[in-house]
From TrEMBL:
Residues 259-495 form the Histidine kinase domain. It catalyses: ATP + protein L-histidine = ADP + protein N-phospho-L-histidine. Keywords: Kinase, Membrane, Phosphoprotein, Transferase, Transmembrane, Transmembrane helix. This is histidine kinase. The keyword Cytoplasm does not apply. The keyword Phosphoprotein applies. The chain crosses the membrane at residues 192-215. Its EC number is 2.7.13.3. The lineage of its organism: Bacteria, Pseudomonadati, Pseudomonadota, Alphaproteobacteria, Sphingomonadales.
Length: 503
């Protein structure tokens, strides 16, 4: 009988170890899947930005080529026909070439190969423009024969051909970048799916192992009970006692499984609850130390006094701060996720009214700080998602008020204009400013810049950038530390399904 009891105890210990191991593996698999999901989302967002940048560069190349060809066609028409409409077309398109090329240079500033190629394009453009201007001036003065003769000799045909080839090469390199970035996105997604599949398989294996272990233990328990039933009747009391021990062990296993399962489902809630209990207990210990100092001060050591009054409250404060921050971060991520799934509903938006509503919301704070939110000129109306626009402008303006310079009253100025099919809004403030090294990182999730003396988790501008991308736009910042900042928001005048980015 002793051997039977020992076998049951050994099975009990083995079951505990196997169940703990299985649950630990399952928990690690879930953590791995979560980390993989976060990394995949971050990688996708980063390469979405790069892909959007490449598309913008290609669009700029296309616009430049169109203007180049239109101006050349208009010049030849003017040489042949001498009609003023060709001259007007030439001037409008020729005037757009240099700004468009400047824009391409800025957008490819991080790519030395493209920058060098665009420098060659600029030199060719200068020669072509000079030749064009001379021939157009000769026609305008009536010297058409001389203009045609100059056209035949100036070699602009070859220069234009070289320009086309260089622009095609620049565009081809952007296409190669798009392909490589798409390949990275695909590889990231494949890795995530593989890891997720592996985690799923591991969870299934853990579940099967747990089930087999429980069934095996149940079978062993049944066999042990049968052996105990065949023992001598004189040992009935011992058998009853051992059976009671086995029932107790089985109950403990069930309670253990329940506790572990419960802890795995809600660890954060448990930590917060136990922190509150520790805080209550710490107060009681501190009161006990205070009473002991009054009655018998010799028995209270400095270590006990320091632990009760400083160490324990400080440690509990750190725990509470960390759990509260984790809770806020989780809620923030969930809000971003829900916002990313929300359906965009375009409608006409009066941007002046939007800024007025935001100013009214902040008016009590502005009155306290002798501050003001101003609209300079008129703001162009757009067709977009009203709620998203309110959140974008609201976050930027609220940040300007929050991160003000205490040495001067806060002033926030909103301006806007239309450039082609795009509406550009500038929100300028005279606050503390942003270090140029942090201009890009302030839009990253959970990243903040400068002195951290204001509440927040670093999700506001990340949310703004995500919403702006969904609306088919971009946002960037220009700032000098101590002199304020200007946030520029570039949006389509009319939102369509093709203009928005999927986030």
């Amino acid at each position: 009988m002793q051997r039977v009891i020992q076998k049951v105890d050994e099975n009990d210990r083995r079951l505990r170890r196997l169940l703990l191991l299985a649950m630990s593996l399952g928990f690690l698999a879930l953590i791995g899947a979560g980390v993989a999901a976060w990394d995949s989302v971050a990688t996708t967002a980063r390469y979405n930005t790069l892909v959007d940048h490449s598309y913008q560069v290609r669009a700029g190349i296309s616009e430049f080529q169109i203007a180049l060809e239109k101006s050349e066609t208009a010049r030849r028409g003017y040489l042949l026909a001498g009609q003023p409409m060709f001259l007007d077309t030439y001037r409008s398109n020729a005037a757009a070439l240099t700004p468009q090329l400047d824009s391409l240079v800025r957008e490819t500033a991080d790519n030395p190969v493209q920058t060098a190629a665009l420098a060659k394009v600029r030199r060719s453009l200068v020669r072509v423009q000079a030749s064009r201007d001379r021939s157009m001036d000769l026609v305008a003065r009536g010297r058409i024969v001389e203009a045609l003769s100059a056209f035949d000799r100036d070699g602009s045909i070859y220069t234009m051909r070289a320009l086309r080839m260089r622009l095609s090469a620049i565009d081809a390199r952007e296409v190669d970048l798009l392909r490589s970035r798409a390949a990275v996105q695909k590889a990231s997604a494949s890795s995530f799916l593989a890891l997720l599949g592996g985690a799923g398989i591991l969870v299934i294996v853990v579940a099967v192992v747990s089930l087999v272990t429980v069934l095996r233990f149940t079978r062993d328990l049944g066999e042990s009970s049968a052996k105990l039933a065949t023992l001598n009747e004189s040992l009935e009391d011992q058998v009853s006692e051992r059976t009671t021990d086995l029932s107790r062990a089985n109950d403990e296993i069930q309670r253990f499984a329940y506790i572990v399962s419960h802890d795995l489902r809600s660890p954060l809630v448990n930590v917060m609850g136990f922190t509150a209990e520790l805080e209550t207990g710490t107060k009681a210990i501190a009161e006990l130390v205070d009473r002991a100092e009054e009655v018998a001060p010799d028995i209270v050591t400095d270590e006990a006094r320091f632990a009760a009054r400083e160490d324990l409250p400080e440690a509990i404060g750190f725990i509470r701060t960390s759990t509260e921050k984790m809770d806020r971060l989780i809620n923030a991520i969930l809000r971003l996720s829900r916002e990313g799934r929300r359906v965009i509903t375009p409608e006409p938006v009066d941007m002046v009214a939007v800024v007025d509503n935001i100013r009214d919301t902040l008016q009590h704070r502005l009155d306290e700080l002798d501050g003001a939110v101003l609209v300079s000129g008129t703001l162009p109306g757009i067709t977009s998602d009203r709620l998203a626009i309110e959140q974008v402008l609201g976050n930027v303006i609220e940040n300007a008020v929050k991160y003000r310079n205490p040495a001067r009253p806060i002033r926030v100025t909103v301006t806007g204009h239309v450039a082609g099919a795009r509406a550009i809004f500038d929100i300028a403030d005279n606050g503390r400013g942003i270090d140029p090294r942090d201009h890009a990182r302030v839009f990253d999730l959970f990243r903040r810049s400068g002195t951290q003396d204001q509440p927040g988790e670093g999700i506001g501008l990340a949310h703004v950038r995500a919403l702006t991308y969904r609306l088919g736009g971009t946002i960037d910042v220009a700032s000098t530390l101590g002199e304020g900042a200007t946030f520029r928001i570039n949006l389509p005048v009319k939102f369509t399904e093709t203009s928005g980015l999927t986030t």
